[in-house]
Design goal:
- Chain B: This is Carbon-phosphorus lyase complex subunit PhnI.
- Chain B: It comes from Bradyrhizobium centrolobii.
- Chain B: InterPro entries: PhnI.
- Chain B: Keywords: Lyase.
- The complex is a heterodimer of chains A (153) and B (365).
- Chain A is 44% helix and 26% strand.
- Chain A has 153 residues and is of the alpha+beta class.
- Chain A has a three-stranded antiparallel β-sheet.
- In chain A, helix 1 (3-19) packs antiparallel against helix 3 (91-104) and helix 2 runs antiparallel to helix 4.
- The longest helix of chain A has 28 residues, at 110-137.
- Chain B has 365 residues and is of the alpha+beta class.
- Chain B folds into two domains: 9-82, no CATH class; 96-119 and 148-323, no CATH class.
- Chain B is built from 13 helices and six strands.
- Chain B starts with 8 loop residues before the first helix and ends with a helix.
- The chains are: A alpha+beta (153), B alpha+beta (365).
- At the A-B interface, helix 1, strand 1, strand 2, strand 3 and helix 4 of A face strand 1, strand 2, strand 3, helix 7 and strand 4 of B.
- Strand 2 (61-76) of chain A pairs parallel with strand 1 (54-55) of chain B.
């Protein structure tokens, strides 16, 4: 695995956490960082992505229907370029994801970003998921067999 | 013949003003907020997203509010909105096997690996109206169990490993997109599923019902129904990277049908597949049944019933198209009707003249 593969895995992991967080959570945690100067490389915009399923769940793809998506791209003054994509129509959220993606690639900010933004949001996301999974698990059926007639022992 | 006519502008303007007034209802009653619709009428929102073919809870809630709860009107509004946005591209196919299941049941195997997870369901409720919901109802907190292992292999994989069920058709290519290409027959499997996924739930339910009642001898089992969250990924060209977009809720249904085999093929089970946005089991079950019956041509079955006729099903499944055609009949057809009126008057005159002539003839004899 090359250095850039590892970097891309880290970027995707961060984007996953951010895409699942709401704007106010991201903004709130970003306030703990004194942000560097940056410019919009792509003005935030809304659009559509066609979602696809697979025939039978595991076969050839088919078009299921579209979803709204926001995207943005920013460049830090130090040159790092970040991209932001998220379901929905929240331009500011896409911009902040792009900003975080750029910060992750910067030597200076990567560690702070992990500590102040990614880690707490990841914890919150995992907590939400765990709670949902626990609620579903509580509805799992325990079958027991009714014995007919007399016990044969 | 269509003739441009003017007039009625003020009447139309006032009618829309009256509509807005009626939509609001009694002003002493609090106005509905979109988050109330999205959170508390969530299955209506799911249906509008499915048939509007656009995943966006807020937009669907807005459409429901604007349409005064008329879901087909709301679906129309969502379809119209989607034409205003550019398309960035297509997402990677969703892997429903990795779903974080909220509900997962099988009607074929009691002891299915991963278990029967009931989730939030109307099943087993008594269908008695609950007066507790009339005002200020605060539900109990849901029970929580430590989720040791919620991995839930697909039923079809279990049957598939013994060759007892056909494999899914493989391939990497999409053959068509109904939002861009007109419907053509015969239609490929992927296009049929796209059509069914955005098709009207009521229509598909009726077709599925006809299918199991005997208008196509189908012996279906609900192999598996699952509902939960799946991740959506998209290859972003600008980033040169497959980026996560977040997750959406989906319902999936795997129907298992008997296939008696032919001279060339051993008997085995066949599949019907249903997938839809949000939580919509009736829709996905109907979709899976109709998906299977539409495979008549491919499986060499006689086409004897409407649910097997892809032209019939696919041309009539879309409620926006259907409502558009049926409801256009209430728009002014004054000139059309004038010519029909003239014709009927003429025919009646001819009929009367002929009868009179007959009477004169009979009297003469």
């Amino acid at each position: 695995m090359t250095q850039s593969d590892i970097q891309n895995i880290k970027r995707k992991a961060l984007m996953t956490v951010l895409a699942h967080s709401v704007l106010s959570e991201i903004a709130e945690h970003l306030r703990a960082i004194s942000l560097p100067a940056y410019e919009n490389l792509r003005e935030p915009e809304n659009g559509l992505v066609m979602l696809r399923g697979r025939i039978g769940g595991d076969g050839a793809p088919f078009n299921l229907g579209e979803a709204t998506v926001s995207r943005a791209a920013v460049r830090l003054a130090s040159g790092e370029i970040g991209f932001g994509y998220a379901l929905g129509r929240n331009l500011e959220k896409a911009k902040l994801i792009a900003l975080c993606d750029a910060l992750l690639q910067s030597q200076e900010f990567a560690a702070t970003l992990e500590e102040k933004v990614a880690a707490p949001l990841r914890l919150r996301l995992l907590g939400r998921r765990q709670r949902r999974a626990g609620q579903a698990a509580a509805t799992k059926v325990d079958f027991y067999t009714m014995v007919r007639g007399e016990a044969t022992s | 013949m269509y003739v441009a006519a003017k007039g009625g502008e003020r009447a139309i303007e006032n009618a829309h003003r009256l509509l807005a007034h009626e939509r609001r209802g009694d002003k002493n009653v609090a106005e509905l907020r979109l988050d109330q619709i999205s959170e508390q009428l969530s299955l209506a929102v799911d249906r509008v997203m499915s048939e509007g073919s656009l995943f966006d809870r807020e937009l669907a809630a807005l459409a429901i509010k604007q349409a005064r709860g008329d879901l087909i009107e709301a679906i129309f509004l969502v379809r119209a909105f989607r034409t205003t946005l550019p398309r960035f591209g297509s997402a990677e196919p969703i892997n429903t096997g990795d779903m974080r299941v909220q509900r997962r049941i099988s009607a074929t195997f009691k002891d299915v690996p991963g278990g029967q997870i009931l989730g939030p369901t109307f099943d087993y409720t008594h269908r008695l109206l609950d007066p507790a919901l009339e005002q200020g109802f605060i539900p109990e907190e849901p029970a929580i169990t430590e989720a040791a292992d919620l991995s839930t292999p697909c039923i079809t994989d279990i049957l598939g490993s013994d060759g007892l069920i056909e494999p899914s058709p493989q391939g990497a290519e999409i053959t068509g997109d109904l939002t861009r290409d007109p419907l053509r027959f015969p239609a490929a499997h992927d296009v049929r599923l796209q059509n069914l996924a955005r098709g009207d739930e009521g229509f598909l339910l009726a077709m599925a019902y006809s299918n199991v009642r005997g208008y196509f001898r189908s012996h279906p089992f609900a192999g598996e129904i699952r509902f939960g969250e799946v991740e959506v990924e998209f290859f972003a060209e600008d980033a040169g990277l497959t980026v996560p977009l977040g997750s959406i809720e989906l319902t999936e249904c795997q129907m298992v049908n008997k296939f008696n085999g032919s001279a060339k093929e051993a008997p085995r089970f066949t599949r019907g597949y249903g997938l839809s946005f949000g939580h919509s089991e009736r829709k996905t079950m109907s979709m899976a049944l109709v998906d299977r019956s539409l495979r008549a041509r491919e499986l060499g079955e006689d086409v004897v019933a409407p649910a097997q006729d892809e032209e019939f099903i696919m041309s009539h499944s879309d409620n926006v198209q259907a409502a558009g055609f049926v409801e256009h009949l209430k728009l002014p057809h004054y000139v059309d009707f004038q010519s029909e009126l003239g014709l009927v008057r003429k025919l009646r005159q001819e009929f009367a003249d002929a009868n009179e002539a007959l009477l004169v003839e009979e009297a003469a004899e």
